[in-house]
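Whiteboard transcription, Tuesday session. T.W. wrote the structure tokens on the left side:
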């Protein structure tokens, strides 16, 4: 269940169009999953998670879909011609970013630490 709703975004940012509201619903679900991948949420973190979700989705909506370049599938040796395919859908993707500042809001290090220890146990 998302930490925020499209109405929360509209209250803090601006009224959303019907297309933006539909997109925000999907992005808020993804934002929740992204946050949970980085943070073990406690009751104290719920308000921070809500605000971070709103910030992530607002940024994505404000920047709009970011173009994904075509993939070149065939090219001539002299580079005079090539065949390109556009990615599925309309060739765009919406990007959600979990920044180092957002990590710090949850009390995490700005960058993730090592995942493996080589001979040394953490103290």
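and on the right, the sequence the group agreed on:
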């Amino acid at each position: 269940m998302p930490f925020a709703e499209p109405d929360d975004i509209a209250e803090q940012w601006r009224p959303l169009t019907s297309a933006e509201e539909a997109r925000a619903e999907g992005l808020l679900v993804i934002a929740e999953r992204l946050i949970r991948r980085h943070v073990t949420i406690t009751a104290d973190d719920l308000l921070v998670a809500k605000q971070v979700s709103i910030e992530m989705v607002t940024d994505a909506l404000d920047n709009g879909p970011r173009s994904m370049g075509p993939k070149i599938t065939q090219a001539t040796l002299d580079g005079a011609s090539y065949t390109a395919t556009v990615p599925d859908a309309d060739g765009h993707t919406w990007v959600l970013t979990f920044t180092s500042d957002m990590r710090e809001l949850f009390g995490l290090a700005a960058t993730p630490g090592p995942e493996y220890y080589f001979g040394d146990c953490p103290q």
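Someone added at the bottom: The helical segments are 6-12, 18-38, 46-63, 100-105.
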